[in-house]
Specification:
The chain has 3 helices and no strands. By secondary structure, it is mainly α. The relative contact order is 0.23.
């Protein structure tokens, strides 16, 4: 469900540090979970671990991907 081959953000001249806002792990996890699951249905359903629901909802998906 993701558009592949996209560049998100910018790095410095040496590609050592992010020049724009860095992408953090919680946002990456949220993006993946929001892509593979219908988060609204996950919240209403039973049996999904609370840690998974929290990982999907506590961070914003990466802008430009989700």
């Amino acid at each position: 469900g993701l558009n592949m081959g996209r560049v998100i953000g910018q790095s410095d001249r040496n590609a050592a540090e992010p020049q724009t806002e860095p992408i953090r792990i919680p946002s990456l996890v949220s993006t993946v979970l929001n892509t593979v699951m219908d988060i609204g249905q996950v919240r209403l359903g039973r049996g999904m671990p609370n840690d998974v629901i929290a990982a999907a909802t506590n961070a914003d998906p990466i802008p430009g991907l989700a």
